[in-house]
Amino acid sequence: VQAQNPFSKWKFGEINFDPPMPERFVLSNGLVVYFLPDQQLPVVTMSAIIRAGEAYVAPGKSGLGGIVGEALVTGGTKSRTPDQVDEQLEYLGIRWEGTVGMESAEFSMQCLSKDYSTALGLLADLLVNPGFEQSRLQLTIDNTLEDLRRQNDSPGRIVRREFNRLVYGDHPYGRTPSEKSLSGITRTDVDAFYRSYFHPNATILAISGDLEPAALKSSLEKAFAAWGKGEAPSLTIPDPTPPARGVYQIEKDISQTNLRFGHLGIDRHN
Fold first, then answer.
1. Which of 27, 77, 38 minimizes the C-alpha distance to 205?
2. Three-state SS sequence of 11-67
3. For residue 131, is pLDDT > 90?
4. Average pLDDT, stretch 251-256?
5. How far, in Å, are 127, 191, 197 from residue 100 at the CA level?
6. What confidence category does residue 4 fall into, taking pLDDT thresholds of 50, 70 and 90?
7. Which stretch of DSSP H or E encloses residue 156?
8. Contact 127, 107 (CB under 8 A)
9. How many CA atoms lie within 13 A of 176 on its CB side?
10. Is the pLDDT score of 2 beyond 60?
11. Contact predicate 114/48, CB 8 Å
12. Exposed/middle/buried for 124, CB within 10 Å: 0-12, 13-18, 19+?
């Protein structure tokens, strides 16, 4: 078939790809904003991407990043209890979620365009003045510990975890939370992580939706006025040591096999 239809003779039409370009501007506190208007639906989406993640966590505190992310979402603010935040989110139908990954954290909020001002004020309050309410924080830690205790119930989770350990070893990408590291996390650790890495000049805010561009910048300046600049975090991730070749087997009494194979690839900046 290849001899009759060689790829070199195939012809393709011209590809025209013209994606819309967002407007970019920087607030006085260093917060970078990208805005893309979209009037198709009366909805606004705001996503804050912050240079903070598990790779910034000390080895003995593995899991702290995820705890901070969940605690920031559920722990209220300094002026609003978690229940007050939950009630307002539910009443207005605002979606609020967030997570801390390996090298970045992302928190997003979606609302109807008519509720934009209220949602923006709430988003800013949650990002700038997190409450980290103790009972909610402890609930997050307890839930994470329970999830850890159940991790070996899933063969997929086992092979994924052990594969990363084999490939990366003690490299930040290979670390996983333990009962010891999670149980030792305190409110002080959470506050310290937040103060160290959550700065406007280490954040990008992406906004898309049914908004008037003229008033956008002033509303953002006002909402985030209390968020002062901090020392932008720097992170140097060492090159991982290539793992030894081998076949590694994890015994589990199940009727199916989970298989994973691979090796280190090219540098992520290549």
1. 27
2. CCCCCCCCCCCCEEEECCCCCEEEEEECCCCCEEEEEEEECCCHHHCCHHHCCHHHH
3. yes
4. 86
5. 13, 15, 12
6. low
7. helix 155-168
8. yes
9. 17
10. no
11. no
12. buried
> Hey, is 228 helix, strand or coil?
coil
Task: Give Dmax (Cα) for the chain.
Answer: 73
Q: From residue 104, give the alpha-carbon distance in Å to each of 98, 123, 127, 187.
A: 11, 18, 15, 21
Contact 106, 98 (CB under 8 A): yes
Q: What is the mean pLDDT of residues 181-208?
A: 96
203 forms beta bridges with 50
Provide φ and ψ at 96, rounded to 5°: -135, 125
Q: Identify the residue with better confidence: 18 or 75.
A: 75
Q: Tell me the pLDDT band of 240, cut-offs 50, 70 and 90.
A: confident
Task: Give which of 80, 77, 87 is closest to 126, Cα–Cα.
Answer: 77
**Single-letter code of the amino acid located at 44:** V
8 A C-beta contact, residue 77 and residue 129:
yes
Q: How many residues belong to the chain? A: 270
Strands 23-26 and 32-37: antiparallel
CA distances to 1, 109, 125 from 8, rounded to whole Å, are: 13, 48, 58
Q: Which residue has the tokens 């966590």?
A: 57
179 closest CA partner among 54, 71, 60 = 60
176 CB-near residues (< 8 Å, 6+ apart): 62, 161, 164, 165
Q: How large is the C-alpha radius of gyration of the chain?
A: 23
pLDDT reading at 143 higher than 80: yes
